[in-house]
Specification:
This protein is 3% helix and 37% strand. It is mainly β and 370 residues long. The strands form seven sheets. Strands 1, 3, 4, 6, 9 and 11 form a six-stranded antiparallel beta sheet that branches. A hairpin with a 5-residue loop joins strand 22 and strand 23.
Length: 370
């Protein structure tokens, strides 16, 4: 199971503990006890340095077409689009509508329907090796309705399974936690769920203590969060006449970059690090040497750019003379700073008379000569 830290609604810096609560709900003819083992409680950081998490809505249930795509398994429910009735309508968490599921009879464990996700981002995720899916988190908001007098308890279990069925990896349940209507968010990293490339959907299973009068609850905002969505993307890749690769990406002169290579999108090896970025765009030509038949490349931020350093040994480069009013009229050139000693002029050094600072402006250093 996974507990997303961003969905915990109390202060994690306080002395309060995160207390696991085990809800058991099973029926056997003769119960002789149950042993449960808990191990390896750990914190997994799926966010990549420099990445900007991106959310892709797979099903927002805004249109009837999304509702009509649902594949029924039982006939004990009716589906409808619920339109937001007011700004504070708890039954809608994204957009203007949600999916309303109305059951006509008493609650019992049944697989009710499948939400197909073919033709969405889920196709690409399903094609990845399980380990490479950890960057993707699947989330779905479930809005539990208010409990009334027909209920014989306050429990309602909502279970999600892979679209292909089965109860192994990816079988995830959550329950209502109060009598009033409230929202709970199902969240699972995609390396924990079995996905078929032909059927990457999810199947919904329900069991609850509502009575014969039935019950309505809602689901909304089925989405994928990519926690490794780096703004750095290789925008151009060319093979040079020498057989090297020329990589181009959008960049900043305040950052240093690295190029990595991988044969499987899981294990990455650095090709080169410490590439100084240029304003707007950087192109780097790399000798990639021997490589696998299939090779993937990525660019990443490798820290701040090194301090600006310029010795002017190769000329002025991109430096220019300016004044507050605009381009300067003084002619500048690179040369040695002389010191007069009597009637002789002795070169002090090859150091220039400009001192660059981090903003790439120029500072004139005046040294009186006697």
């Amino acid at each position: 199971m996974t507990i997303p830290i961003d969905l915990i609604d109390h202060d994690l810096l306080s002395e309060d503990r995160i207390t696991p609560r085990i809800l058991h709900n099973f029926g056997v003819a003769e119960f002789n006890g149950l042993e449960i083992y808990i191990d390896n409680i750990r914190l997994v950081d799926t966010y990549t340095e420099g990445a900007v998490p991106a959310t892709t809505v797979l099903k927002g249930f805004e249109k009837e077409d999304e509702m009509n795509e649902i594949i029924p398994i039982t006939e004990r429910y009716d589906l409808a689009l619920h339109k937001k009735s007011e700004p504070g309508d708890v039954a809608v968490t994204e957009g203007e509508n949600s999916l309303a599921i109305t059951f006509a009879g008493a609650g019992a464990w049944k697989q009710d329907f499948t939400i197909p996700l073919a033709g969405t981002l889920m196709d690409s995720i399903a094609a990845l090796p399980p380990g490479a899916r950890q960057r993707y988190t699947l989330r779905l908001d479930v809005i539990f309705g208010e409990v009334d007098e027909s209920w014989n308890g306050v429990w309602l279990n909502f279970n999600i399974r892979p679209g292909a069925g089965g109860t192994s990896l990816g079988n995830y349940s959550m329950s209502r936690v109060q009598d009033e209507a409230h929202v709970r968010t199902y969240s699972l990293t995609m390396d924990q769920i079995e996905l078929g490339t032909d059927d990457p959907g999810i199947r919904l299973v329900n069991q609850a203590a509502w009575g014969d009068a039935g019950h309505t609850f809602h689901v909304d905002n089925l989405r994928i969060i990519d926690t490794d969505n780096s703004p750095l993307k290789i925008s151009d890749l060319k093979v040079t006449p020498e057989g090297d690769f020329a990589f181009t990406w959008k960049s900043s002169d305040a950052q240093a970059y690295a190029l990595d290579a991988s044969a499987d999108l899981l294990e990455w090896s650095p090709l080169v690090t410490g590439i100084a970025g240029f304003p707007g765009e950087t192109t780097y030509q790399a000798d990639i040497g021997a490589r696998e038949a299939r090779q993937f490349y990525r660019v990443r931020v490798a820290g701040a750019a090194p301090p600006l350093s310029e010795d002017f040994e190769s000329g002025l480069g991109s430096w220019r003379s300016v004044t507050k009013a605009g381009p300067g009229t003084t002619e500048w050139e690179v040369g040695a700073l002389p010191i007069r000693r009597g009637r002789r002029t002795v070169p002090l050094s090859r150091e220039p008379i400009w001192m660059p600072i981090m903003s790439r402006a120029l500072m004139l250093v005046c040294c009186p000569l006697k």
